[in-house]
Amino acid sequence: MSATFLGIPPFPEAAEKAVNDSRLRHNLRKATHTIRDKRASVVGELHDDWQRLRAEGAAVKEHTLRHLDRYLEQLEESVQRAGGQVHWAADAAEANEIVTRLVKATGETDVVKVKSMATQEIELNEALAEAGITAYETDLAELIVQLGDDLPSHILVPAIHLGRAQIREIFLEQMAEWGVPAPEGLTDDPRALAEAARVHLRERFLRTRTAISGANFAVADSGTLVVLESEGNGRMCLTLPQTLISVVGIEKIVPTWSDLEVFMQLLPRSSTGERMNPYTSTWTGVTPGDGPQEFHLVLLDNGRTDVLADTVGRQALRCIRCSACLNTCPVYERTGGHAYGSVYPGPIGAILTPQLRGMSSEVDEALPYASSLCGACYEVCPVAIDIPEVLVHLREEVAESPGHLGEKAMMAGAEAVLSSPRALDAVQRAAGLGRGAVPRHLPGTAGAWTDTRDVPDVPAESFRQWWDKRGRERG
Amino acid sequence: MSSREQILARVRRALADVPADEPVERALGEGFADSHGAGPTLEVLEDRLHDYRALVRRVGADRVAAEVAAALERRGAARVAVPAGIPREWFAESSVELLCDSREEPVPVSGLDGVDGVVTGCAVAVAETGTIVLDGGPDQGRRAITLVPDYHLCVVRADQVVDGVPQAVRLLDPSRPLTWISGPSATSDIELDRVEGVHGPRTLEVLLVESGG
Amino acid sequence: MRVALFITCVNDTLFPDTGRAVVRLLERLGHEVVFPEGQTCCGQMHYNTGYRRPAGRMAVRFVRTFEGADAVVVPSASCAAMVRDNYPRLGGRGSRLSRKVAELAPRVYDLTEFLVDVLGVTDVGAYYPHKVTYHPTCHGLRMLGLGDRPYRLLRAVRGLELVDLPGDTECCGFGGTFAVKNGDVSSAMGADKARHAVETGAEVLCAVDNSCLMHIGGTLSRQRSGMRVVHLAEILASTEREGAHGALEGSEAGS
């Protein structure tokens, strides 16, 4: 529970280590390619309709964001009407305070948790631990990360960086510390590992009286919260305890129940690559005699209104956390999630993290460059977030900030050459004269190229010179 | 200023670019399809459920009691939980002990943990995605009863099955607690390889009752 | 038809053979090629690295240089995409630049689009007796949506054996300044692309963008793989008569 993203170096440096870790590369390659193929197959089943759903999903989310104040008020009213209580948290500290206070009021010292990005973002588990409350993660991958004192490296599958043999070791070594130990003779068969998790958590589910969740969607008109999951750990947490506390980012709102016609198609197919995830739970306030009798919704800002204020960057708030962009990203495939230094890794993390945290550090400033701008993320995004557009937009912010003098000088030099055909021609002629003098390995920044790649031979004459000559010869 | 006011004020400041007269109401577009022509409804549902490794049987309306009895016998179930409003005729040919659950008289969790299974009906089923939706109706009961037991036998009537997700969303009432079930519990958390059977019922069996009779 | 060639700064400086091939090809097809001399660079490197203002100035130059043209042909998908997809973002709403871009951009074509869509040809009379694999570069694939155009052109080349490239839609890792800012990831991506290419058993890897080919070719060359990279234009310009001279000499990146 003490693992933290603090201390992870800026992306290029963290990536270098990851790229050279052959086991990590193997795990990531296998997992991302599996999920990519599954997604492609179930998206293909919807034919042309996929693009219509995608456009509608983007439009619903964009519209919601443009009227977010109104929808937040409507959601609050709907939830309260249905017997829930609504709390507002301006930042992580306030959200943690609210949740801690609510848990303490139940008198419990153990809580079970459904996987939630928002609570990871605010480091809720750590805050609860300080108050003497133990939060038990119940999603299998979250459990693996928690037991291994590791960090999540993927939005959907936080333990994607680990292979089955590593997971077996973690279970054997750590489960006993947290509760029911792993069975003797545990193999690394995923079935056996899933069974071990079932046994480990079973008693805890049946007896824990307070649960914490996030939500995939919060429906403003009905006050309904929606959680999609696979294992049933979500249902356990959302159904059996007496008290349920849901921490939900303010961007999770959709205006109406009917909007789920779209999102219940977009999300499962994009995230786990299934036609539908095994379980989806929806609840509206409190249902007497069925499920938690006390429900608290904590609405979280924590930087989201800053993202909202940026008219280009705003689209990042459309994200429904499917992780299709991670799974398809060639950079993520080679570095994994830890290199991004945030709970939000991959392409969406590269645009969300610096916006949420405000590009105040070297780590955050490096993130917008963690992409070759190949556009695969935009292509698969179910809500059509133009991630390359936002990346470039954030690079502009970095380029306009103080510092980065070497790069600025280089870019100014390049512009000087490229802003006049005569200057370009002069440089080309000089290079042509100096051809053959370029060594195979170059120092400095250029070395980042020549470490692994040869440089092309400089031609004796540029195209421009050839064209001139041809023109003169033809008279 | 409360955090509520502070957040709402920040949101409004952030949206300075949105014209004041831009309509807040927005109807969902109608450009997308209700379903995607995957084939005859019941066959598609059956196929998708098989795909999730659920057990499926197509049965005639007059055979429900016999098939419920047969399924419970195959499972070796002696005691099953049922919602109080379940049609008693489904059990006419079975000798299992029924543990009745209702909001007023709920079976405690430990009791649910001790039964051999649960039998329910459903509210809606979606063929294209192999999804069964429970809405807490009289033949479906509290959410806990279909969660804690390891075996769930669900009786789905043909007239409850729609082709696609949008049709199901329209039929459902969001004020009720809903559980959408697509196969037995599963995980893909280990190497993104799907494994069935984690915390929810590890076996889902569906009796698909054809209309008529 | 009178075609204005936007050679691009990379082709102009490092890969003039590609430009010569485009001229030869279009002239062989009976069209007149002009080279507006005021041209320099589309501004893609500046734009993609976050230097919006210099990119804007280059966009202004581009528009000024090409605004009278009936058609602008670009033998680089990423530069064509820069003009078509990113120039509209550079000018403010209703600005002079935006209006001019909106007017000009639809007439800016990647070479394969120009051949297939505007001229309506897929068989350009080329001859290229080699085993070739094609890498669809990201901006050609996703921003321009070149689709099957390059394949149709390649399949019509006599003597050419076209083989599929495994993992073809995955980025090669070039990405402009990404190649040096994130050199390790870029190299890892390049190495995988090179491995896939070599596994096809093809002699030649072709694409519609020399900057990607410079990266993949530099990797292949460093690995002493023996595989060559060639711009698609050079294959299409090759004929029985002038093939060897036109396309196969001095056109390799990084050999």
TrEMBL record, chain A:
Single GO MF annotation: 4 iron, 4 sulfur cluster binding
Record-linked InterPro entries: 4Fe4S_Fe-S-bd, FTHF_cligase-like_sf, Helical_ferredxn, LUD_dom, LutB/LldF, LutB_C, NagB/RpiA_transferase-like
TM stretches of this protein: none
Matching PROSITE patterns: 4FE4S_FER_2
One GO BP annotation of this record: lactate metabolic process
SUPFAM superfamilies: 4Fe-4S ferredoxins (SSF54862), NagB/RpiA/CoA transferase-like (SSF100950)
Domain 4Fe-4S ferredoxin-type: from-to ranges: 359-390
UniProt KW Iron-sulfur keyword: yes
Signal peptide (residue range): none
Keyword entries, A-Z: 4Fe-4S, Electron transport, Iron, Iron-sulfur, Metal-binding, Repeat, Transport
Tree of life domain: Bacteria
Pfam families xrefs: Fer4_8, LUD_dom, LutB_C
Protein name, UniProt field: (4Fe-4S)-binding protein
Organism expressing this protein natively: Nocardiopsis sinuspersici
Automatic annotation (TrEMBL), chain B:
InterPro entries attached to this UniProt entry: FTHF_cligase-like_sf, LUD_dom, NagB/RpiA_transferase-like
Domain LUD, first and last residues per copy: 115-209
Domain of life: Bacteria
A Pfam match: LUD_dom
Listed transmembrane segments: none
Protein name per its UniProtKB record: Lactate utilization protein C
Biological source species: Nocardiopsis sinuspersici
Lineage, uppermost ranks: Bacteria, Bacillati, Actinomycetota, Actinomycetes, Streptosporangiales
Automatic annotation (TrEMBL), chain C:
Protein name: Fe-S oxidoreductase
Pfam short name (any one): CCG
Naturally occurring in which organism (per UniProt): Nocardiopsis sinuspersici
InterPro entries: Cys_rich_dom
UniProt superkingdom: Bacteria
Residue ranges occupied by any Cysteine-rich domain in the UniProt entry: 3-83, 132-216
GO CC terms of this entry: cytosol
GO MF annotations in UniProt: oxidoreductase activity
